[in-house]
Amino acid sequence: MSKSNSTPLPDVIQGGMGIAVSTWQLAKEVSRNGGLGVVSATALDSVIARRLQDGDLSGDIRRAFKDFPNQNIANEVLNFYFVEGGRAPGKPYLDVPKLSLKPSKLTTNLLIISAFTEVWLAKERNDGLIGINALEKIQLATPATIFGAMLAGVDYVLMGAGIPTQIPEMIRYFVDQKPFRLNIDVTDSKSQHFLAFDPASIVADSIVLARPKFLAIISSHALAAYLAKDEKTRPDGFIVEGSTAGGHNAPPRSKDAIGADGQSKFSILDEADLVKVAKTGLPFWLAGGYGTPANLKLAKELGAVGIQVGSLFALADESGFTNEIKSELLQRLNQGTLSIRTDPFASPTGFPFKIVEITGTLSQPENFDERSRNCDLGYLRTPFERPQGGIGYRCPGEPIKTFEFKGGNSENNISSKCLCNALMADIGLGQIRVDGSTELPLVTLGSDLAGANQLSVKYPKGWKAIQVLEYLRGA
Ligand SMILES: Cc1cc2nc3c(=O)[nH]c(=O)nc-3n(C[C@H](O)[C@H](O)[C@H](O)COP(=O)(O)O)c2cc1C
C-alpha cells in the first residue's frame, strides 16, 4: 500500500523517463536507497506486450500478473501476447490496439495491467517509495494507467507535458472506487468529449486503495499558482523543470524562439520565479541540470526539498537504454564529443525535444529521410472532429499526405519524427518492418552534462544508480 503520507519527502527524485528508460529495475534501486524511484508510464502497454512476445524469459511479468486482482484480465492478456520461448527471429511484434475515446476492453485492460506490473515489480521486496510518470499529452491512456498503478500501491503520480488540472480529482475518485470522466481535448470541436472509466469494471469487490501523492511537472510559476489555487486542481507538490532537461521541454516564451542554429532558443522568460513557486506553500523539486552535489545543495538553499535527476540515471546500468546506446553515449562523454540539440520540430507534440546526435539513429538526416513514415503505435495522435462529424485521430509524424487529408497543418510536420517507434527502438523493442529492417532509435538526454562529466571521470566504464545517489549526496 502507498506509504507516501507517512514517509519523509525524498531529496532525490529519479525522473520518469519514457519509453521505459526508467525501468522498474532502475526505479527499485533508487527507491531502495532512499530516493523516489519512478517508472515511466509512456507506452507501457506496448512495452509489456512486446516483452511478453519476447518470452518474458525472467518470468517477472508473469509473476506480477499472478498478483493482479482480476485473473480473467491477466489470462486474457497472456493468451493474446505471451509467446513461450519468444518470437521467431525476424518476426514482427503484434501491435497493441491504438488508444481512442471508445477503447476496446483489451486496450483498457492492457493499460491497467501494464502499469500494475511495472509498479508491482518496482515495489516487490522493497520498502522505498515508487512513483509513476505519465504525460498529460497522452490523455487517452491516463485513467486506466493511473488506476493500474494504484492497484499496485504506487506512492506518487507525476505528470508533465501539459496542464494536469483533472488528475488530483481523478485520483480521489479512484481511491473511493468511483467512476470518473476525464475531459478530453478534441481539436475543432465545440462539444465536450470525455473518456469514462469505472474501477468497478475491473475489480468487483471493494478494495482499499491508498491515495498516492500527485506532483505536477511545470516550468512556470504562473502555472504553479494556477494549479495551487483550487482544491480540485491542487497537486501535492511541483517539479520545476528548466530548459536543459532531457526529453521534452516547455515551448520557449519569447517571440524569436528559434536561434540561428535552428534550435529552440530559451531566455530569462522561461525561468520560473522560485519565490513565487514557494508562495504556493507546496513542496517543490528542481529539475534540468541539477544533477550535481553542488546543485542539490543549491536547490535546498533556494527553498526546494531536493532535485529531480534524469540524464545521470538514464546512463546508469539499470536504465532501459540498450547496452549499445549506453556505451556509445559513455564513450562520447569520455571523449567530450557528446552533442545534444534542442529540436523545435522533431516531436509530434509540438514541444521542443532534446536529441543526441549519434550515428545509427534518426538524428542523422539520411536515416530520417530513408524511413517510410507510418503511425502504427499512435500514442501522440490527437483527436479532432471531422467537418462531416465524427472523431478522427492524427499525428504530425504520420505520412504527410495522410496528415493533410485529416486536416492537419503540415507546415511544420516535414521533420516530425515518429517518437513512438524510435523510443521503442532505444530500449531494444524496435519493430521489424516488412523489408526485414528494424526501426532506428532516437536518443534524448539533458543538455547540461556537468554531472555526467564528473561521474564519467570517476566511473569511465559506466555507473550504477546507487553510485549516482552516492555522488549527489556527497558520500
Ligand atoms: C532519456 C530521457 C527521457 C525522458 N522522458 C521523460 C518523460 O517521459 N516524461 C517526463 O516527465 N520527463 C522525461 N524526461 C525528463 C526527466 O524526467 C528529468 O526531469 C530531466 O531529465 C531532468 O534534467 P537532467 O536530465 O538534466 O537531470 C526524460 C529525460 C531523459 C534524459
Automatic annotation (TrEMBL):
The keyword Oxidoreductase applies. Keywords: Flavoprotein, FMN, Oxidoreductase. Transmembrane segments: none annotated. InterPro entries: Aldolase_TIM, NMO. CDD domains: NPD_like (cd04730). One of its GO terms (molecular function) is nitronate monooxygenase activity. SUPFAM superfamilies: Inosine monophosphate dehydrogenase (IMPDH). This is Unannotated protein. It comes from freshwater metagenome.
